[in-house]
Amino acid sequence: MVPLTWYLVLAAGLFCIGVFGALARKNAVGVLMGVELMLNAVNINLVAFWRHTAVSGMTGQLFAIFVITVAAAEAAVGLALFIAIYRQRRTVNVEEIDTMKG
Amino acid sequence: MNLTDLTYLLPELILLLAATAVFLLDLLWLKRPGAEGKRALLPYVALVGLGLAALGLIPSLGGVRQVATMLAADPFAVFFKALAIIGVAVVILTAIPYLRGRTPYRGEFYALLLAVTLAVCLAVGATNLVLIYLGMEFLSITSYVLVGFLRHDCKSGEAALKYFLYGATASAVMLYGMSLLYGATGTTDLGGIAAAFASAPQGAGAGLAWLGTPAIILLLAGFGFKASLVPFHQWAPDTYEGAPTPVTAFLSTVSKATGFAVLIRVFMVVLAAMQYQWTALLIAVSIVTMTLGNLTALRQTNIKRLLAYSSIAQAGYILIGVAAVWMSGATFTGLNGVLIYLFAYLFTNVGAFAVVTAVESATGATEVKDYAGLVTRSPWLAGLLFVFLISLAGIPPTGGFMGKFFVFGAAVQQRLWVLVAIAAVNSVIAAFYYLNVVRYMFFTPAEEGAEPIGVAWPLRGALLVTAVLTLLLGLAPGPLITWATHSVQLLALR
Lengths: 102, 494
Known about the structure:
heterodimer, A: mainly alpha, 75% helix, elongated, B: two-stranded antiparallel sheet, 21 helices, 74% helix
């Protein structure tokens, strides 16, 4: 069996890539994709912990399924927002959306 | 899960039904010609729903009960549910005149406000990481929609975008922390996690218990985002400025209180074994939060931004109370100050935003200099804003003073002298920018041709409720203190 550490390292790496994406991307859709990577890292964590350490039950798997579902809802609201903003300003570049400052 | 559990779920069920009812009635009446008069009743339908939900809290009073394995109906949850219901009711009153003429889809707005109340009720009662996540996410996603509700307003969309991007990132970070907690203990039940940490062997061979430390920091990102603590606050000024003002009032009070409620429940109960680690962290965050909030508020010219930074600073004061708590057995001494503060702050801040809504509805102005000579244009509004501002500054006889008194008092009892000194200096800085607004209102003459400001009836109701309670909590705080003390002493799982 693949040891738990490998999964955790994979998840941590994926999470860091996601954080980098969320912080460095200028396109709002790119930021959202970074967040999705972070959520997937969480899912790997949850399922790996469930397989290796959980006392009983299906909690880890269930939690992962909830995360996937909520991520879909979040993406739906987020993309709807992006479309509304694109219609107003013809851009979803987060650096150009800065009428409020200070 | 049995039938008696349902009586403890009454507030949630009523809110769900009320939200659905408002949605459907809106849909039904929207297409009908001549039903515009009926649609004006929708906010009152929502208010009746909130009233019924408040009555639904009665079976949950007293005692700690586990409901359907994942929820607690304890006094702590009841306190925050009552806070949310009262807060949203006042927000609805301020929204009635504000939304008129701004958007044709007003019914949905009230339905979403009811849904967001339901989310708060679930989040503050949750005793399982899965449900905490779902409740917080329900609250966040509904708030994103509310913030961006004025679709044709450029600022509203931008505010929602910033809130969404920060919120999605913060919740993903929080979730990573939750997955570590699950890995360290093998369960997502808060009681189970607490037991696992309490019995975990220390030092070498301690298994995965060391994951608790990174989990604390990661969880703080999610809760701190809701409570707008530095360094998770960057969204707050832009979102508060751009959002519809009633939504800003909601975000700065009820949503913030939810962040604190979940933070308190998770840190106090679950991570009690690691208190020395998170107390130091919270003290540091508290100092940075209040100092940065106050110093940035000094140079704001927009009243909504000023109140946004002031609300960040207030979060820092509240966090003092959380950091100064000490535990003896199952009681949490000092925590009642946090609850008193949050309750007084609810009325004060919603009231301040209600005045801002009144001025904005009449004139469309949100700059501080537009408040020049407000006393000649509307003496009542000026007087009320004065009351709210001195309450925010923590000057007696107001609720804000009682909150600060109890929170700082807890810190003094814990001998956190440096923290108290920094908080005192901050209070003085804060008084400067609050009283600057007062100076504009009372001592600067109004512009030529400035007209008196009329206030709509529902908004007058909101102002009356918030002003009376702000003063009452300062003059006769006895019942609130008793209630808050009762609410925290039973904060234990089973």
